[in-house]
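User: Show me a protein chain along with its predicted structure.
Assistant: Here is one chain, sequence first, then structure tokens.
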Amino acid sequence: MTIRPLLCSLLLPVTLSALLTAPASAAPRMDEKLKASDMIMKSPTGETIPLSACLGNKPLILLFWASWCATCREEIPRLRKLNAGRFKVVAVNEGESAWKTKRFISTNNIDYQVVLDPDGSVAKTFQLPGVPASVILNKAGRIVYKGIGLPEQLDAYEEK
């Protein structure tokens, strides 16, 4: 056996083991408190909305969406029910104009809060890959869920 295959056969398992067991120190922990007062968003009508104003009485669902996203459109009835009940919903539109977003809100009878993220800075803050994605913050402002779309079992995130 030559030295190269021998090194590969010995080092590969060690390297993989180290990668799989190493702590993800660069990634934020799900229970980290968000600095909500630092994040300011804008509604499609130009109103300034601090994220801290959305926190408090109910857990907060931040849903990242776009009008071209079929899954996002399908979730609208569920989001209406959640917002009327146990959660506060804020839909964060990714990369579309205020005009297009206002038209979409009107056409789809959206009655929950919608804000704009024209440059992706809000999504980048949460390290999200794209749309649809969501972040759930508990009443204290701690991230209890971050992922693609909405989780199926939202009850698990209601009281965390």
